[in-house]
Structure formats: C-alpha cells, structure tokens
From TrEMBL:
List of residues binding GTP: 166-173, 191-195, 212-215, 292-295, 321-323
Provenance organism: Tomitella fengzijianii
GO cellular component: cytoplasm
Main localisation: cytoplasm
Residue numbers spanned by region Disordered: 16-40, 65-85, 459-486
Every OCT domain range: 358-438
Family: Belongs to the TRAFAC class OBG-HflX-like GTPase superfamily. OBG GTPase family.
GO BP annotation list: ribosome biogenesis
Enzyme Commission number: 3.6.5.-
Compartments in which it is found: Cytoplasm
Protein name per UniProt: GTPase Obg
Length: 486
C-alpha cells in the first residue's frame, strides 16, 4: 500500500491557441484572389477526470506541473491549424479541487466526472474570418489566446467504507495492518499516524476499504492534538469503528469514558461536505466498538466488563487483539455486513456527474488612465490589444482601425469620456498611439460601449470556424445598434 497523500498543489497550464494566418489566395491569372488565411487551432485544455483505478494523489506529488499542448497556427488556403490535445489527468474518486483562494471549485465524485481545470486558449482568427463590409481584404490576422494557467489544490477525502477512530496508540494502524495488506507505521508513541492509511479488506464476496486516521483526543475540536481536520477522510464512511485501548494504564481513562469523550468530539465536527453527498452526518453513522489488546490479560477482563455497557447502546461489540490476531474474523464479517447494507441503502451516484465550472473570462480587464509621460495624454493599461493583431502592422491603417473599433466596443470610449478626454488627444496602447476621435466612422451614431456583442462571442466557446465567421458577420451587422437593444 502506498503512502496516502491527501493534499497536493498542482500547477496546470492549458495550451495557447495558434495564431491566425494572414494570407491572400493566389492562382494563375488571379493575382489577388481574396484573403484565405485560416484560423489558428484552439489550445488543449487540462482536464481532471475521476478514475476508479486511481487511489492516491501520489502521482501529482511527483509531477506537480501539467501542461496541455498548444494549437497550431492557421495556414493559407483557409486551412485551420490543428488543435492542441487535451491533457486528461486521472484523479481518485472523491477528489476535491480548491482554487488559489481556497474556494471549492469542484467535488469530483463518480467515475468519469470531469473538470476543465485550465481552459485552452482559442485560436486567433485568420484574415479570411476577419472580412467585413468595411474591410474586404484585411491584411492582418489575430493572435491566439494564451491558455489559462492556475494553481490548484487537490484534496482527497478518502471514500473509505469503514473509518477507524480512537485515542492515540489504541491500535488503529495495527488493525489496518492485520485486516488488510496495508503496512502503516505502528509505534508505541502517540500520533504515530499523521495522515490516514487506507487498507482494502476482503470478507467473502465483499471487498471494502478501511481508513485509519490520526489519533483523537478530548479537545480535538478546539485544535488539541492534530485537531479534527482529518475527519474529512471518514466523512463518507459507511461505518465508524471505535478502536478502544483496553490495556491503557493512563489515569482517568477506561473504555467507556474514552468512547464518550470521542463521541463528544465527533459531534463537534462540522462536516465540510455534508451538502450534497446524501449521507447522514458523522454523528448518525452506524457504530461498531472494537475492544483491542485482548492479548493482555487485564485488558481482556476489562473488555468483558464493559461489553454490556456498549451493547446496551445498540452497538455491536468485538473484543480483538491486533497482536495475536484473535477475534478478527467475526469483526471483519460484521463490518462487511454493515458496509453491504449501507451500499444497498446508498447506491453510488450516477456514473458521471459532470461538474461544470463557470468560466470567468474578463475581456475588458483594462483601465484607462491619464498618462504623464511625454508620449500621449492617455494610456490604456491591463489590456494588451497589440497582441490581438498579428504581424505587427502598426503602420497599417487597417489594423489600427480594427484595434480602435474593438477598443470602442470594449468601453474604452466611455472611460476616456469619463476622464475628460478631448477629440485629438493621444491615447497609447502598448506600441500604438491613436489620435482619439470620439465620433465613430460615418453612419455610426451610437458608440458601442457595452460588452454585449463581444460577450456573445466569448461565450460561444469551441465554435466551428464557420460559426465563428458567421458570428463575426452578425456582430459586424449589428454595429451602430445600442447593445442593450440587441
Ligand atoms: N499488546 C497489544 N499491543 C497492541 C495491540 N494493538 C496495537 N498494539 C500496540 O500499541 C501501540 C500503538 O499501536 P498503533 O497501531 O500505532 O496505534 P494507533 O492507534 O495507530 O496510534 P496513533 O497512530 O498514534 O493514533 C504499538 O506499540 C502497538 O504494537 C494489541 O492488540 N495488543
Ligand atoms: Mg496509527
């Protein structure tokens, strides 16, 4: 059994989109056959997918960087660049994905459940797709978008069937080691176990998993010992087994008060995931009491003495020894029965419950500021619109015109007005400096300042080249109409 890695930081980067191609169709006797530069291919995405054959996050521990491939550039003769391949990372069932700020992005449950962890950049439009009424033969193409890059935290909440809880040194790890093939660390000092151990147990037809968690002590809910955080590993367990040390000589401890103290801690635990896993809270989970260390004569006596008390609470009681292996068989079969019953009552979730994360794409993340440099009066920061146009034709009026249109649609006009810009003021964006003309070209009276039209394009993710071209034309056709009315 491998070590149980339960939390890893994973850096994911999606592939960038290929650049659009700027090309002119050429044929004998038809020197200028019109623009035919194809679009760049989309970059590949990084996708997390639940695979029931994967049980740990160990792989990510060793390979914490994942990158999907880039899209290829578009080509002449309207050939689209090939897409970058998606990178599918297999994760265990019950993996929780957290964002940089600790927010839960997804709780991946069920075979095949997928999360797009980093979305590939879209390919840039080729000049063929940039044709408009105003620009019949654009001499430029657009750059591909960069792929998303994020830092994620993956946490595994083991989906064990049986959770062993108990005081430090009660023998939890010892039990896992004799019930299964797992070889957890066992030692006679408290808090030997720092991360949960998972073992697979076979009992007749039934196979189930047992998780041992670090020792619990009174006050754990206030952070004493290792606290209660790790109880998330037993949140989904079908059965909780109290492992009781009947041989302890510590003053003030005996099996009944040990179990009572732990019950109080379990009741204090606030499940992080009670929301939709359909399970009852920890406090209501069926219990089994395992009285351990019966190989020690005094312990066996004490176990016999307290059996009645636990049985009267309706809990099955088993007296065992992890050292001599006495009493393990009946315990194993009783656990198997409870697990079977739980599985019947709680059928597994749909084989695939896709978790779709809303993609936040801020296409207007720029600011317009008064510029104090000698170059211009205003400067647009945050956006890198020069990246939008390929082949840097900044002396090319057409490309500059395209940029100006696009900036107008994104709301730069509005911001300039707010800042008190006057016609003729110089506006600098990256390498380009414009002379600001607040009145848009002839025939256009209402400046397009909203994000409506562009947002529509942004949301039409993964559109075909044809759809894109069409959308582009539609957008063009809508020029001059107030975005609110569209
Ligand atoms: N005599 C006897 N000793 C046992 C038995 N089970 C466990 N021990 C001993 O008790 C000590 C603690 O055992 P562990 O299995 O590490 O206990 P744990 O509950 O996992 O402890 P933490 O990980 O610290 O919470 C070790 O020295 C074991 O050898 C048993 O059945 N009989
Ligand atoms: Mg242990």
């Amino acid at each position: 059994m491998s070590r149980f890695v339960d939390r890893v930081v994973l850096h994911v980067s999606a592939g960038s989109g290929g650049h659009g191609c700027s090309s002119v169709h050429r044929e004998k006797f038809k020197p200028l056959g019109g623009p035919d530069g194809g679009n760049g291919g989309h970059g590949g995405s990084v996708i997390l997918e639940v695979d029931l054959g994967v049980h740990t996050l160990l792989d990510f521990h060793f390979h914490p960087h994942a990158k999907a491939s880039n899209g290829k550039p578009g080509m002449g003769s309207n050939r689209e660049g090939p897409r970058g391949g998606d990178l599918v990372l297999k994760v265990p069932d019950g993996t929780v994905v957290l964002g940089e700020d600790g927010e839960v992005l997804a709780d991946l449950v069920g075979a095949g459940t997928r999360l797009v962890a980093a979305r590939g950049g879209r390919g840039g439009l080729g000049n063929a797709a940039l044709v408009s009424r105003a620009r019949k033969a654009p001499g430029f193409a657009l750059l591909g978008e960069e792929g998303e890059t994020r830092e994620l935290v993956l946490e595994m909440k083991s989906v064990a069937d049986v959770g062993l809880v108990g005081f430090p040194s009660a023998g939890k790890s010892s039990l896992v080691s004799v019930l299964s093939a797992a070889k957890p660390k066992i030692a006679d000092y408290p808090f030997t176990t720092l991360a949960p151990n998972l073992g697979v147990v076979s009992a007749g037809e039934t196979t189930f998993t047992v998780a041992d968690v670090p020792g619990l002590i009174p006050g754990a809910s206030d952070g004493r010992g290792l606290g209660l955080d790790f109880l998330r590993h037993v949140e989904r367990c079908a059965v909780l087994a109290h492992v009781v040390d009947c041989a302890t000589l510590e003053p003030g401890r005996d099996p009944v008060s040990d179990v009572d103290a732990l019950e109080a801690e379990l009741a204090a635990y606030q499940p992080a995931l009670s929301a939709d896993n359909g399970l009852v809270g920890l406090a209501d989970r069926p219990r089994i009491v395992v009285l351990n260390k019966a190989d020690v004569p005094e312990a066996a006596e004490l176990a016999e003495f307290v059996t009645e008390e636990f049985a009267s609470r309706g809990w099955p009681v088993f007296t065992v020894s992890a050292v001599s292996r006495d009493g393990l068989k009946p315990l194993t079969f009783a656990l198997a029965d409870l697990v079977e019953k739980f599985r019947l009552d709680n059928p597994p979730p749909e084989p695939s419950r896709p978790v779709i994360r809303p993609v936040a794409r801020d296409d207007s993340g720029f600011t317009v500021e008064r510029d104090h440099s000698a170059r211009g009066d205003f400067v647009v920061r945050g956006a890198r619109p020069e990246r939008w146009v390929r082949q840097t034709p900044f002396d090319n009026d057409e490309a500059v015109g395209y940029l100006a249109d696009r900036l107008a649609r994104l709301g730069v006009e509005e911001q300039l007005e707010k800042l008190g810009a006057e016609p003729g003021d110089a506006v600098t964006i990256g390498a380009v400096t414009f002379e600001w003309e607040p009145t848009l070209p002839a025939g256009v009276e209402v400046p397009l300042t909203g994000r409506g039209t562009d947002a529509r394009l942004e949301q039409t993710d993964r559109v075909s080249a044809h759809e894109r071209k069409h959308a582009h034309r539609v957008r063009r056709g809508l020029e001059g109409i107030d975005p609110e009315e569209q």
